[in-house]
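Our preliminary data section would be incomplete without showing what the modeling component actually yields. Below, a chain of 317 amino acids is followed by its predicted structure, encoded as tokens that our downstream tools consume directly.
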Amino acid sequence: MKVTEHINKADKTLISFEILPPLKGKSIQSIYEVLDPLMEFKPSFINVTYHRSEYLFKKRGDDSFDKVFIRKRPGTVGICAAIQFKYKVDAVAHIICGGFTREETEDALIDLSYLSIDNILLLRGDAAKNERDFIPEPGGHKFASDLVRQAVSMNKGIYLEEDSIQGYKTDFNIGVAGYPEKHFESPNLKSDLKYLKAKIDVGAEYIVTQMFFDNKKYFEFVNKCREEGIIVPIIPGIKPITAASQIQSIPRTFHVDIPDALSDAIENCKNADEIKKVGTDWCIEQSRELIKAGVPCLHYYTMGNVDAMKKIVKEAF
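Predicted structure:
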């Protein structure tokens, strides 16, 4: 079932989880260890992130260098297939611009369609770790809206080799990302909403937000989206803080604010257990307020925090 169909048929707030593929060399068992305990909550769908290749330079014997590409977290397509087979739960595959050509994107989408994985979340992705700005692959997409166009074309039976291929129509339900505190590269939220609306206008059907820790920012974001004519479902994404280091790492990595009350409470904790309790309790209260407001779904960024996730969902729903 498509994400939007789940939402349209529901009479209450749904639950979804997001997971990362394991690092190369680890088995899929590490995924099952996260998901097995969460299945009791009957998630409507599970998102699986996609990760670009990174590169390093290896020195040759003649003092020249080879550029070597490494993908540290492969397996998104296979994990989505395994989730649908093992749990009978819809999987949502993330597809990104960074590190992929249009041809590689098309191949990934074809594989997903063959496996009846028809829910996708399309994102530009971050810049490579050794690059300051986002640089697309030669022949790749620069913007998430370009990814949306490609998927929409395949839904119409139009492939890259238009002259030779006019055939099977895929059936992707296309989601995109939204940023309640704006994307860090946008000069302001108004500009960011313009680009978000462009993704909707070319065919995206729902939005999943970046994490936030202040529900007021989500509600304001939804109101501004509606004012701009964005009427698709907007799914809030949240996660608990479970370690003191995240007070610095989350704002630095995800470009979101930590409310004063939350950061002060964590700084006053005496040990790791107290920190985890404060972060978990905060996420529970966020969840309760969002459910009361009637959000279509709560999307939890699990980051492997199984115990915290179980406590949050049990107490919030």
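The chain has eleven helices and ten strands. The mean pLDDT is 91. Preliminary results of this kind motivate Aim 1 of the renewal.
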